[in-house]
Write a structure and sequence with these properties.
Layout: H1 2-13, H2 19-79, H3 87-147, H4 176-185, H5 190-258, H6 261-285
Helix pairs in contact: 1-5, 1-6, 2-3, 2-5, 3-5
Length: 286
């Protein structure tokens, strides 16, 4: 607000035949910042598309690998922890162990994807921030060179706030036929019962892997979309916060120049009265 007041007053009072040219040159410098903001948004959307494509490819590749690894681990559980267990115990304890192992495996994959997504967005975030700081420095230089005015132009900064908690669900989905088959299967005695229970759990591995990977992928897709939306909003807002007030100040100075001498003097006096008030507010804030 202080920059806005100072710029409007200086641009309105600027003497000399080339005053209008200097103000126009400064306005052109501001327009460049706005154009770069649009370019930064385009780059953010392109990076989000790249990250989404990489996430989907990683999920497709992980499915067979995770399923094979879990099948091997489950076979070891059958041969060691559950070697002498009855069929009902194999199914109950085996499902718990499978859920634990699957959670560990898919969570490790998910954390890798989280790291890739955060790195991609953070790299873009840092780049856009550096560019914005450079653009604001150029605007400050232009204000000093063209208008003899020292602007503060503080950067609002972008924010990246990931929220990546995720819960796994291994609730059994069974129709009436499967419920009946499960009840029979868990009551089969001896080695035959143990073999059928093991085969049943082993057969669930690919389906459960696909289901949990699908849930993790969908969750990350949603979070990537939300993070991208916030980033685009912040890019847009940070550029607007940095330039909109200055653009409005130039418009006000142009209006003052078109007023009568008395009205122009009144508006300049109003601007002049606001400056010490704003400086007092800044002193209180700091």
């Amino acid at each position: 607000m202080l920059d806005e007041v100072a710029l409007a007053e200086r641009a309105a009072r600027l003497p000399g035949a080339r005053a209008a040219e200097r103000v126009a040159a400064f306005a052109a410098r501001l327009a460049i910042v706005a154009d770069h903001g649009t370019s930064a948004e385009d780059r953010a959307e392109a990076e989000a598309r790249r990250l989404l494509t990489a996430l989907n490819a990683a999920a497709d590749q992980a499915g067979p690998r995770v399923s094979a690894d879990l099948s091997t681990l489950l076979a070891e559980v059958f041969d060691q922890e559950l070697a002498k267990a009855e069929s009902a115990d194999i199914e109950r304890r085996g499902r718990v162990r499978l859920a634990d192992m699957m959670t560990d495996a898919i969570e490790a994959w998910r954390q890798d994807q989280v790291a890739d997504i955060e790195a991609g967005l953070d790299g873009l975030y840092q780049q856009v921030n550096r560019e914005l700081l450079g653009e604001l420095a150029a605007v400050r230089d232009a204000a000093a060179d063209l208008l003899g005015l020292e602007l503060t132009l503080p950067a609002t900064g972008l924010r990246l706030e990931p929220d990546l908690h995720f819960l796994y669900s291994f609730d059994e989905r069974a129709d009436q036929a499967e419920l009946l088959a499960g009840a029979v299967r868990r009551r089969l005695p001896g080695e035959a019962g143990r073999r059928i229970a093991r085969q049943h759990l082993s057969g669930l591995v690919p389906e459960l892997t696909d289901r949990q990977l699908g849930r993790a992928r969908s969750d990350l897709q949603y979070r990537l979309a939300e993070s991208t939306r916030r980033l685009l909003t912040d890019i847009r807002q940070s550029h607007r916060d940095s330039t909109d007030r200055l653009t409005a100040a130039l418009e006000r100075s142009a209006q003052i120049r078109t007023q009568s001498a008395a009205e122009g003097a009144r508006q300049l006096a109003e601007l002049g009265a606001r400056e010490p008030s704003l400086r007092q507010v800044l002193r209180l804030l700091t």
